Amino acid sequence: MKRDFQAPGRSPVLAREAMASTSHPLATTAALETMQNGGNAVDAAIAAVAVQCVVEPHMTGIGGDCFAIVMEPDGRLTGFNGSGAAPRAATPERMAELGVSEITDTSPHAVTVPGAVRAWETLLKAHGTKSFKTLFKRAIQYARDGFPVAPRVAHDWAANVGKLSADPVSAARYLVNGEAPRVGTILKYPRLADTFQMIAEGGAEAFYAGAIADDIVAALQAHGSLMTKDDLAACHTTAVSPVLRDYKGYTVAELPPNGQGIIALVILGLLERFGLEHLDPLGPERFHLEMEAARIAYAVRDKFVTDPGYMDVCHSRLIGSDYLEQLAQQMSVSRRMASVPEAQLPPQTDTVYLTVVDKEGRAVSFINSLFSDFGSGIVAPDTGVLLHCRGKSFKTAPGFANSIDGGKRPMHTIIPAMVLKDGAPFLSFGVMGGQYQACGHAHVLTNIIDYGMDVQAAIDFPRMFFDMDTHDLQAERLVPGSTLDGLADLGHKVGPAGGPIGGSQAIMIDKARHLLTAGSDPRKDGHAAGY
Fold first, then answer.
1. Domains of the chain with bracketed CATH
2. Nearest Cα to Cα of residue 39 among 132, 142, 118
3. Beta strand ranges found along 375-423 (DSSP E)
C-alpha cells in the first residue's frame, strides 16, 4: 500500500545505524543520545523508559512492572519477566476476612510488588554496558528542572482528575490547583528526582530496601494493603524463553504466561485458517474474523492464563494445531457467534511500549506499565513513587486460574514481541492498550504480512475491539460506515470507540540492505528517529 501524500499521516522513518521508537519525543531523544554516546540498545531502552516514567506519569513509572525481549543480531532471543507478585498475606481467605469481593484499580490490594526497577537492573547486567547513574541523567533532569506536558498526555490527564482528587497525596502531586495540567505546562517532580538519584547510586536494592521501601510500604499499609518490606525484598526478575509460532512463513515470538502474549499467537493461529490476505483490510469480513478470533482467544486467556506455577495446562498446548483447529470450528465467516463456548482442555499435573535497535543489530522490545491511567492512584508521599494496579486482574474468590494468592504473579496484559524471517531478525514491535494488546499484535502483524503495509501504515490503520463484558464491538472513527453496516449484517452490535484504541511502535530490520524502518503511533505523542 502506497501512502497518499495529500492525506494526513507520516512516513516511516528510515536509517542505517540505529533506531528508536517510543511514545514520547523526549524518550526517543534520550535513547538516541545514549547510543550516540556509546551505549547499546538495552542501555538506550532503559534511558528512554526512565524518561517516560517522568514525562508520561499516567502511563508508566518506577512503581510498575516491566517485560522485555532482547534479540541478538543472529536472531537469538532472551525474554525477561519483570512482574511482581501479590503480598504473601494476600490469599482468597484473607480477602474474604477483609470483606473484599472485587479488586478495583484504586484498591490497595491492586498493588502488587513493582517489578520494573529490578527488571531494569537485571537487563543491564545481562545485556547492557552503562550504569543507572549514566542512564538516569535525562530522567533526573526532567524531574528536577521541569518538562512540558505533551498533547496526548494532557488529554489523558484531564480524564483522570476524579481519580487523582480522591487521594490527597496524588491530588497534591499530580493536579495543579485541583485541575489537570494543560498542554505546555512545565511540571517538576523533585521527590521523584531524588528517588531516581538514590537508585542511580544504590542500584535496585535502594528501591526494594531502605528509605524508598519504607515509604512505599507505609503508604500502602495506610490504605489497608497487606504489603510488607519482606514482600518488596523478595522481588526478582525471571529470564524466560519466548514462545515461538509461525504465521505464514514468519516466526512470531511472545513471552510465556503470566503475560497474554500466548493469546496473540492463538489469534494468529485462528486467522491463518481463513485466507485473510484475500479480504479487504478495511472490510467487514476482515474485522469480523479478527473479532471472532479475539473473542475465542480471550476466553482461552481468562480460562487458563496466569502465573505459570498455577496453570492447569502447559502454555504450549494453547497453540497446538489440534487445539486451534478445535477452536476454529467455532468460527463462521457468515455469522457472529451468539456466545463463546467455554475453552476446554483437560488439566495437566500489563503502559508504555518502546523498541530500540543498535548499530550491532541488537534489538529490544520493551514494555513498562502502571496498568490503568495513574495506576492505583496511590503515591508514596516522600519518594514520589506512583504505584501500579496490576493486581486488579486477580479474582478474590478461590478456584480460578487467576485467583489471588500470596507470592503469585497476576495475569498480565503487557506484552513485547519480536518477529523473525528465515531465522533472522525481522521486526521488533509492541502494542499498548491494556486488554487490547494481544488483539493489537495480531492486527498490526496481519496488516504487514497479509496486506503488505509498511510499519507506519500498519500502525496508523484503523482499529476495532470488543467490550470485555458485552462483546459489543467498538470501532475507531476511520472505520468506514459500510464496514460497520456489514458487521451489523453479520450479527454484531457496533458502536464508536470512546477514544483511540491503544498505541504502537515498531522497527523493521532488513539485514541484507543494512536498513532499519520504523513507525510510531500517531495516537500518542511520540515518534521514531534514527541515524
1. 26-238+352-393 (no CATH), 240-351+419-515 (1.10.246.130)
2. 132
3. 379-380, 385-386, 416-421
pLDDT tops 60 at residue 291? yes
From the number of C-beta atoms within 10 Å of its C-beta (0-12, 13-18, 19+), residue 220 rates as buried
| Residue 173: all three cell numbers together | 502531586
* Residue 493 grid coordinates: 452490535
Which residue is catalytic, options 351, 355, 383, 446? 351
417 to 150, 243, 421: CA distances (angstroms): 27, 10, 14
Return the DSSP state at 268.
H
Q: What is the pLDDT of residues 335-362, one digit of tens each?
A: 999 888 665 554 433 489 999 999 999 9
Cell of 125: 547486567
Q: 309-348 as b/e, with b when 16 or more CB fall inside 10 Å?
A: eebebebeebbeeebbeebbebbeeeebeeebeebebeee
CA distances to 206, 422, 513 from 130, rounded to whole Å, are: 18, 32, 29
Span 224-256, pLDDT tens digits:
999 999 999 999 999 999 999 999 999 999 999
Dihedral (Cα; 93, 98, 101, 102), 10-degree rounding:
-110
> By C-alpha distance, which of 458, 520, 358 is closest to 16?
358
**pLDDT 10s digits, 425-479:** 999 999 998 899 999 999 999 999 999 999 999 999 999 999 999 999 999 999 9
The DSSP call for residue 197 is: H
* Distance of alpha carbon 360 from alpha carbon 269, whole angstroms: 33
Active site residue 351: yes
Between CA 82 and CA 69 the distance in angstroms is 11
Which residues, including other chains, have CB under 8 Å from residue 5's CB and lie 6 or more apart?
none
Q: What pLDDT was estimated at residue 349?
A: 34
pLDDT exceeding 70 applies to what percent of the chain?
A: 98
